[in-house]
Amino acid sequence: MPLILLSGYPSSGKTHRAAQLLTDLRTRISCSPISSHSRLTVHHISDETLTIPRDAYREARTEKDARAAAYSAVKRALGREAIVVLDGMNYIKGWRYQLWCEAKAMGTGCCVIHIGTPIATARDINTRLLADPTTDAGYAEDLFENLIFRYEEPNGMTRWDSPLFTVPYEDEVPPFEAIWEAMVESDGKTKVVRPNLATVLAPATASDYLYELDKATQEILQAVLEWQKDHPGESGGEVKVGELTVELPASPLALPQLQRLRRQYISLNRQNGVAVGRIRESFVGYLNDSVQ
């Protein structure tokens, strides 16, 4: 590792930026006087390398299969002496959180490169690609607009989106030096991140793990709803759940929003679960990061 995630609107130039980054990384490795650099390898994973069609993002079922393929490819490529570049929209924050957890469980770093192309510019590029008979690039117009609507922009204040590097459309190249320094130590080794109990996979899933996952997350949601019911009209606030604290945003959290976050968390941890004793702490941390 480390794992470098590219994120941006459809047709925003992600693959172009990925190509620039790959060239820079491989040049640095081949030209470096540090012997340990020679052992580093660079892996590029994208929809194209995985033969995932753009229409896969039209339906939830096919998109889920596409993400599963990308996740498996990332897991296979992860290693202490590998740099993995995941080139794609990566537009769902829950998906980026899942990848961040995987990287941390491996004891390695992760960063996000946000391709800061404005929507209007990405739309113009997509229109030109669709009109070009020499390429099959570009998204159908209805799918393009739907993906724009669904895009969840990276937030450098959250753990899984940091460090965050934003590359404006006008910039000629990404900040190569800053990315390299954030991911690789001065002695040439990839930076090691110590996993915590919330991201280390349990050695074996208990028979009642899913029951405990469902029960613990539901209890925390109920505590938040009861607090909001007892404090109508109050902005912000802290909900105590044992020794843990859920930090509420200025606007009240509606039941559908809380249920959606709970479903996302359960989906992320159904198979790659945290230890049973850490479910509450992990879920509270996920809520705090998601609603801030």
Overall description:
The chain has 292 residues and is of the alpha/beta class. It is built from nine helices and seven strands. Strands 2-3-1-4-5 form a five-stranded parallel sheet, with helices on both faces. A two-stranded antiparallel ribbon has the order 6-7. Helix 7 runs antiparallel to helix 8 (255-269) and helix 7 crosses helix 9 (279-291). It is globular and about 60 Å long. The two termini are 29 Å apart. The model is unreliable at 197-204 (pLDDT under 50).
Keywords:
7 strands, 13% strand, 292 residues, alpha/beta, single chain
Oligomer: single chain
Overall pLDDT: 85
Task: Give the end-to-end Cα distance, rounded to a whole number of Å.
Answer: 29 Å
**Number of DSSP-assigned strands:** 7
Radius of gyration: 20 Å
What composes the largest sheet?
5 strands, parallel
Query: What's the helical proportion of residues?
Result: 40-55%
Strand-pairing-aware structural class: alpha/beta
Low-pLDDT stretches: 197-204
| Sequence of strands across the biggest β-sheet | 2-3-1-4-5
Shape: globular
Number of H- or I-type helical stretches: 9
Write the layout of secondary structure elements.
Elements (H helix, E strand, L loop, with lengths): L2 E5 L6 H18 L9 E6 L13 H18 L4 E6 L5 H13 L4 E7 L2 H13 L9 H10 L13 E5 L7 H8 L25 H22 L7 E4 L2 E4 L7 H15 L9 H13 L1
Parallel strand pairs: 1-3, 1-4, 2-3, 4-5
Antiparallel strand pairs: 6-7
Helix pairs in contact: 7-8, 7-9
